[in-house]
Design a protein that fits this description.
It comes from Amblyomma americanum. This is Putative secreted protein. The protein is of the alpha+beta class. Helix content is 18%, strand content 45%. The chain has one domain: Bactericidal permeability-increasing protein, domain 1 (Super Roll). It contains two helices and 13 strands; from the N terminus they run E-E-E-E-E-E-E-E-E-E-E-E-E-H-H. The strands form two sheets. Strands 1, 2, 3, 4, 8, 9 and 13 form a seven-stranded antiparallel sheet that branches. Strands 5, 6, 7, 10, 11 and 12 form a six-stranded antiparallel sheet that branches. The protein is elongated and about 60 Å long.
């Protein structure tokens, strides 16, 4: 299943939309979901008569979020966020009913929980010689625990599409 996750996908508007007068953002580009790997053993269990599986997943430098921006002056750039390491736990229901050849089908069921995120910098490009300063200041405002809130909904969306 992980091997089928997309390398790239786009979410949100294709065109720029105004955030406040003079500043616009385009839709979010997500790359690197295909680099998410299993971390540790698969843990089978039963819940209310259903076969279930818990799996820990890890991303090492893989997933990156990029949002293009532009000022009314015509200056263009992007905001990018990635985590050096991100680990989370997901639950799946295992079903073999109606699947030919004795194969099984996985269904995303139950919570997906962030476990750990390390070093979550925000990169700013296109703002000129102050890119490094802007990057350093904005990075301080993104605590690592927010990374899970950003990544997991997009991971779940990509995973759901992969399982269908």
């Amino acid at each position: 299943v992980l091997a089928k996750l997309p390398k790239y996908f786009h979410a949100g508007p294709q065109d720029f939309i105004s955030i406040f007068p003079g500043f616009e953002l385009a839709g979010l580009n997500v790359t690197g979901m295909d680099q998410i790997e299993r971390y540790g053993p698969l843990i089978p269990y039963c819940l209310k008569g259903k076969r279930m599986m818990q799996v820990d997943l890890i991303s090492l430098h893989g997933v990156r979020f990029n949002v293009p921006w532009r000022w009314c002056s015509g200056k263009l750039g992007s905001l990018s966020v990635r985590s050096e390491l991100f680990r989370f736990t997901a639950q799946f229901r295992i079903d073999s009913e109606g699947v030919p050849g004795g194969d099984v089908k996985l269904f995303k069921e139950g919570p997906t929980v962030p476990v750990y995120a390390h070093n979550v910098p925000l990169f700013v490009s296109g703002s000129g010689p102050i890119d490094a300063v802007v990057t350093e200041v904005l990075t301080k405002f993104i605590p690592s625990h927010l990374w899970g809130d950003m990544v997991l909904p997009y991971f779940m969306h990509a995973l759901q599409r992969t399982l269908e």
